[in-house]
Amino acid sequence: VDCSTGLSGRCDESHRQDSVNLLTFILLLTLTILTIWLFKHRRVRFLHETGLAMIYGLLVGVILRYGIPSTIYHNKTPPSCSLKEGPVSTLLLNVSGKFFEYTLKGEINSREIHNVEQNDMLRKVTFDPEVFFNILLPPIIFHAGYSLKKRHFFRNLGSIITYAFLGTAISCFVIGNLMYGVVKLMQAVGQLTDKFYYTDCLFFGAIASATDPVTVLAIFNELHADVDLYALLFGESVLNDAVAIVLSSSIVAYQPSGTNTHTFDASAFFKSVGVFLGIFSGSFAMGAVTGVVTALISFFTKLHCFPLLETALFFLMSWSTFLLAEACSFTGVVAVLFCGITQAHYTYNNLSEESTKRTKQLFEVLHFLAENFIFSYMGLALFTFQNHIFSPIFIVGAFLAIFIGRASNIYPLSFFLNLGRRHKISGNFQHMMMFAGLRGAMAFALAIRDTATYARQMMFTTTLLIVFFTVWVFGGGTTPMLSWLHIREIWCKVVVFRVSFTLKGDNLLSHVSLQDGPQHEGGSKTKQESAWLFRLWYTFDHNYLKPILTHSGPPLTTTLPGCCGPLARCLTSPQAYENHEQLRDTDSDLILNDGDLTLTYGDTAITANGASGGHDGTRGEWGGINGKTEAAPERDSEAREHETTSRGTRLVFPVEDHA
Amino acid sequence: VDCSTGLSGRCDESHRQDSVNLLTFILLLTLTILTIWLFKHRRVRFLHETGLAMIYGLLVGVILRYGIPSTIYHNKTPPSCSLKEGPVSTLLLNVSGKFFEYTLKGEINSREIHNVEQNDMLRKVTFDPEVFFNILLPPIIFHAGYSLKKRHFFRNLGSIITYAFLGTAISCFVIGNLMYGVVKLMQAVGQLTDKFYYTDCLFFGAIASATDPVTVLAIFNELHADVDLYALLFGESVLNDAVAIVLSSSIVAYQPSGTNTHTFDASAFFKSVGVFLGIFSGSFAMGAVTGVVTALISFFTKLHCFPLLETALFFLMSWSTFLLAEACSFTGVVAVLFCGITQAHYTYNNLSEESTKRTKQLFEVLHFLAENFIFSYMGLALFTFQNHIFSPIFIVGAFLAIFIGRASNIYPLSFFLNLGRRHKISGNFQHMMMFAGLRGAMAFALAIRDTATYARQMMFTTTLLIVFFTVWVFGGGTTPMLSWLHIREIWCKVVVFRVSFTLKGDNLLSHVSLQDGPQHEGGSKTKQESAWLFRLWYTFDHNYLKPILTHSGPPLTTTLPGCCGPLARCLTSPQAYENHEQLRDTDSDLILNDGDLTLTYGDTAITANGASGGHDGTRGEWGGINGKTEAAPERDSEAREHETTSRGTRLVFPVEDHA
């Protein structure tokens, strides 16, 4: 309600109501925070904070629905007027010569007309679904991208991309077709009279394929479980959110509408694939470009003297990615994800130390609040959403379909990936990935975005139940499942990174190379290709992109061919010469976040006790190589033999082997 | 537009338009940030960042207004329908059997009907005025309160409250009456035909009395100008924002409307005063209570082990203050201000070190973004707001009125205050306070809140011009004005704080007392009274509130009378015993923010050169007493004589004297 118009009584009332609603949610979040603290304090692990937020949401939903006597509703149908034209966005109302402006809120079902005002209280606590997409999801997704700077993620990139793209597509297709069968069954037994198209089923497949193993990952982090499995799960869930969004919107484009009743055929399928690729690559490009622009701005200005300005700029540029993508009809959330990854990879290196902390903390808080808000809202929505359609057959079918869909993503793909992977994804890991297929914020946001038709309302209700079930049951069962699959009882195998140090003046120069365990020397062609592709990208990134975009990396003068000398000198920052060949330029590979570091410590302890650890007997001290790379350097006389420079040092990263 | 209804084409279009608009503002802010950096880098001081934001806003406004060809507007009057009843909040539209829901946006002027759609582009970049009050102002005001933890503020509290309450009321009344004269003049010469009530004039007085010397304060901070003057200006501007809001809303309550045409008489005046006191004290209480509740929560939980949870809770509780006050029909902004002050005074002491940084930085970023957004928007609004009414007589009258209003606030009150003050407010300080009466975000937000009538539109236009003029001219003129008034060339006088240290075990115990310079020993009764009041509050706060609400302060067992022993033991935290008599419990008085510390350093340098510094010859090293109180301890053999405990140390706080 626009309150600049003197209708202040009504306006005040509506404003007060809005305040009360928001206050309800803040109270919910406060309660959740306090209980989370209690759980963390007591080390309770059977219920994660998101599950908790849902429970509190449910409670408040029940109170709002049944606790408030219905007598306070003034049962009145609002006045209506007729027009011959279709719905217009702006309508004028002439009340005895005075004109009032009305804006279109939406179509309402004929059965709802009589309780438009009656259910006002419940409607009030229902947010515009676009709030989820435009305000709450972006910080969550950006934070996921921004905290993705993990060595293990990049090492498993091939598998992650396979699961996220191919796997999600398979899962979507499988769930869609199974649900189409369920729908046919329902129509056969007379349980479904409204329209339910094949595209609706595929749309449901896309929604239900977006996994969000936030609970599982939190527990992984606490228990110091396997790092590669963590990377696989985290990477897959981040990317498959993006894939699910784009998939669902390219399916919706072929939804039969009033005039367009042809079914989803082969040509529509290929068109959908085209739309998918267009939107995905467009959003990807947009995110990467804004990230690069931010890196360039922070590179060419001395903004790092003013952390406040730097943080504000970083925040604004990241937000503008979202808006830019939305304005160009791409997908903002996907753009924000890749913007986050780019910012972490390039801009992060240019920020002052103060700003790196500030930006991380800022997005951490935003992410935390947004996520818990969404989960609280989900709990609330089960009771306050007006158009729930509980269809037992559909719900049971959906539960079966999502398990089959997840299974046909994980098991076949793992089999094919294992043909090419050096470190096989063991059977237990596959079961764990299957188990970790929780559905969360993204599935909910996609489902609530459009609840206009009967089919969509049924899907929304079912999605909500799937989220509740998976978060509580699978989320709560993570700890026992990990023990049962023996994922915590790990044997260590050592992958050796060779780091050679050279003392040159006062600078400790270093060279890092990856050396495989001898048992993996003879790899198949696939292995070598993917390694070759990765190495090509790494070299290009390290030699050209990093020096151009950040203050780290070797100076361009040494990496560009001689003919580009003047250009190189002009683009190289003075700091690059200082950094030249220092360990700093390897931080993209070696930097370990707190989580990682803990994991490494955890593993080491086990190795030291377990004694089955690979070819590495003598263990030195753990310590930072420099301020930035907190890895575990270790001098080893064996390693020195293979090295080209003097003063060899081996970095030992224990990797688990379950074969 | 609710997009869950299948009207997706229109919805997409509107969403894209929204994204473009927000993108415009983000671009503006990005440009502003980069230019601010350039200015800071080059030490340009004639234009502050807020002035800059306004200039960029103006430029974009010109482009939007004149740069986009008007041919793209589709000139169409929206369809209208008639009803006999008054405006309803929800209207149904029946289009051939389908029902659409419309919500009331507001009344529109009959002259606007034909360009409702035409000016859609310009309307789109116009935000709902409530956005300013509910989203942008709260972080600005909270940050002001939260960063108010300054010794100098509390030392000048009496004067600040006088200027803020009495001064703002005087200013409001003077401006209101002068403007009523101007309005009468305009009516006499036939320049004003629409209604313009006396309450409208008083309302304008309230709007134009809210000062916002953000520019001046930034420059003060950079130039290390006088600390007492800084405290006076800062404190006055923070509190008078609150006063202006409450004043304006209590005046509006007596605005003659259609049925109520009686003028603003004496009874209405006293009722207004009553409403003012009610709203103000209610908001104050609400803010203080939420602050105290937050302090209690952080006191009784061990939340400080999880800085993320702590920060999130802090943020949510502070936000809930705003909503709670709005829900109870108090003023959210005022509540947030006092919540900020309470949080800084109590909760801040319970937070982990990590969280103290996080919360400060979080609110700093929010404050920065919100403030620059408002100033950009002001620039934009000059060209994109649809209903500007430029009335030369009113504008000239308003400029004269605000200067007279400010003068009748500062000079008479300073005269009376000087009768009671130990450290007189010198003539030059008074001129500077007069000069620093910029109008900013609060005046704008109050003016844009209601632009329904002709009078309000004229006021809005005038307020906008006043903000532009004062920010650019007065803001830019601060540096020359400071030099001209010789405020930077200061003589120092030393106030001696006696801190006595006792070594007890390993703990360095201390006792702080304030000792006045001998020349001030014989003060007037007023002085003693205010000192007595302040001391009473300080003792109560220090002995009872701080120990109950925070982990600092002496244990209650020592401050409460013996009979309350069990209660005291139960309420005292174990830490309090450890802290007992340590310097930590003095941090509310002694803690110096970065700004203060710089100021102190600045002053010292001057004292050392100026040589007129008081009775303190030998100067020791400056250094932190402990991690928290970065004040200047100094061992002095003279001081030891007056002390009860051994190992005396004097804290020297140079204070300027212009008498």
TrEMBL record, chains A, B:
Cross-referenced InterPro entries: Cation/H_exchanger_CPA1, Cation/H_exchanger_TM, NaH_exchanger, NHE-6/7/9
GO molecular function: potassium:proton antiporter activity; sodium:proton antiporter activity
Compositional bias per record (Gly residues), positions renumbered to this chain: 611-626
GO biological process: regulation of intracellular pH; sodium ion import across plasma membrane
Cellular component aspect of the GO annotation: plasma membrane; recycling endosome membrane
Main localisation: membrane
Membrane topology: Multi-pass membrane protein
A Pfam family reported for this protein in Swiss-Prot or TrEMBL: Na_H_Exchanger
Signal peptide (UniProt feature, chain positions): none
Location within or outside the cell: Cell membrane; Recycling endosome membrane
Ranges for region Disordered: 610-659
Residue spans of biased composition, Basic and acidic residues class: 631-645
All copies of domain Cation/H+ exchanger transmembrane, residue ranges: 32-484
Record key words, sorted: Antiport, Cell membrane, Endosome, Ion transport, Membrane, Sodium, Sodium transport, Transmembrane, Transmembrane helix, Transport
Record keyword Glycosyltransferase present: no
Residues that span the membrane, as ranges: 20-39, 51-68, 131-148, 160-183, 275-300, 312-341, 362-383, 389-408, 429-448, 454-475
Domain of life according to the entry: Eukaryota
Family per similarity comment: Belongs to the monovalent cation:proton antiporter 1 (CPA1) transporter (TC 2.A.36) family.
Protein's name in the database: Sodium/hydrogen exchanger
Organism: Scleropages formosus
Gene: SLC9A7
